[in-house]
Amino acid sequence: MNKRAAQSGVLNLRVLIGMFIMLPGVVLALAGFGIAQAQQKQFTVKSTNSIDPLVPPMFDCSKIHDLGIDKQVNLRAGAIMIFCGEAQGGSASPDETSSRFVQKLLQPLVYGTTDVDLITGTETYPHVTQSTTFTASNPDNPLQIVVTYNDARGINVNNSAGVSVSTDGGNTFTRLTINGQSPFPNCGSPIIVYNRPSQTWFIACNDGSCGGIGGYKSTTPCDPKSWIHYCIYTSSGADRESGWADNNPSSPFYGRMYVSWNDFTRGQNIFLRYSTDNGLTWTNERQITATFVRNVQITGDKVTGAVYIAGMDEGGGGCGTTRANKLYRSTDGGNTWTNTYNGPTFIGPCRTASGYFATMYDNPAYWRHMGWGEPAAYNGVVSYVYAAKNGSDPGDVFYIRSTDMGVTFSAPFQLNSNTDPTKAQWEPNLSASDAGTLLATWYDEAPRVAASCQPSSPSTPCYQMHSRKSNDNGVTWLVDDTFSDVASPLPLQPDPSIVATYVSDYDYSSSVLNQHLVAWVDGRVTINGISQMDAFFDRELPGLGTPTPTPTPMSCSVSSAGCGGVVFTPPIDFTVNVSDPVDPATVQASDFTVNNIPSNLPPTLNNGNTTITFHYTTSPVTTRGLQTMHISAGAFNCGGGPVLEFACPFFYYVRRSTPTPRPRWSEPPPPPPPTSPKRLRR
Ligand SMILES: [Ca+2]
Ligand SMILES: [Ca+2]
Ligand SMILES: [Ca+2]
Predict the structure, then answer these.
(1) Number of domains making up the chain
(2) How far is the CA of 53 from the centre of ligand 2 (A)?
(3) pLDDT tens, residue by residue, 157-206
(4) Looking at the structure, do residues 276 and 397 belong to the same domain, yes or no?
């Protein structure tokens, strides 16, 4: 705790003022209450530490954890972390010679075409970081593609929304610029959706002018002067927004736009607002979670109009800790929401951690990443990709598939074919096309030959974008191959106003017609001899499939002949069948319970590991009536993935012994049957 925290007398007011900094009237009003002098003094002291316009004046650093600032990913939160000494800003370490690394293309391209650098125009060191991309397109004019990203160009004037527009289908892009800056003042962490009925593009961002979520809209996106400001939501705690627009004219919810986010001042919960009038108003608000679940990304089914939010339980953050994927669904245009899926826990991808966030690199901790991926939905099938630690392997990317609109999912299918346990694959994205194809793309260390990656080693290849495509909506997958044209060095983040561990938080890919549009962060371009970040773009066109695609495995499930049945003797052995062979190393006695009492003796596996018998020293069945066998989802692995949940009722009935003849006058009444054994036996 620093000495500022000890001055608690004015702290609360200071926090309030910091939170309301977007509302000058509030600050002026409070200044009239005789505290302005103390605040001014405090501000003067602090202002020598930072001139960062992203940090609210008089911000109370002791409140970072209470406000969830340490869990947020927007650049303003990062600037506060740096200001308060809780994180370091970027810095240059140009100890490498400035040889520009370019690997020749040796093979024909399997996925994608020629990479395009989205960062046109002047770059001024050290404000050269551009990453965390969001891609959208115009279905009525597929030549029009817009990619948004974090752009450090204007971070010192509170303008960090980068937007690049293509009018030739993605062959070339232009970064929107007015007077050397992006034409989006007070806007950061941008996303973009296209509203088809009004032919209008909507950027949504952490918007200082709205004091929450807002942005800019335009019908002529390539004209930097055409963008008009609008607001969605007011709260200083909004973070990690995502968006989706229903552009299917035959959808019952055609034209609706959905934006979701975490609000760290409202329980850290996920909230959503949707517009039913083509973006004129955004008053329909829904609370999606009642606890902190990360708003990973939102998407929708182009055919059915169902909307899905992929969330993540991050297990308290850190490296070596668990994550769990979650899914929330609306089938009525955003009006009501259901938590349809709570996946099994897994270990998040990481090599180490920095504060709350796990990072993909250590020594130094670098590239924060929690395993977030992207959902895609097409014709009732919901797909999701994410990253996980896999034993000692710091990261692999996995695909799961649901054929029941997000209630149950297949066993995870590892998309990356590189199985070197020292090499990471992480931060995947996924999109579904109108042709029912899926394209997954991720960062892949396959080309790394050095023992490790270090930021700004321009001559040391570190990662390359890899992709995998499905031509049948996720039933089978074509080969894993490269998507970006060259291996990239690990780019440095040199901007002192952005946390030093930041590289890229996500890439949101999308599709238009039968194409998949993907952007990412690439370090191939050096400035001042330093490998630095540019957002790049490429697209995947329809192509021939390989003759023998790999099927996505089905989930394995447990069944038992005893479900719904009756026993007359308390059993000590329970046999269940597994739909696919179980991995014996993952089965433990305690995986199985009866009435919440775990089995306590080593289980027995038979029939090619498709039958498991769980044993008890003493029967867990002690009282007559309903009993419940249970195995938690993911308790063990079978069929190459985690088992589905198993819950099975059965009944214990005490057979009445042969009645002893008694005098008639003392015949007791028959016992009240809570469950009639004869009926249950059928
Ligand atoms: Ca750059
Ligand atoms: Ca790996
Ligand atoms: Ca390419």
Answers:
(1) 3
(2) 40
(3) 999 999 999 999 999 999 999 999 999 999 999 999 999 999 999 999 99
(4) yes
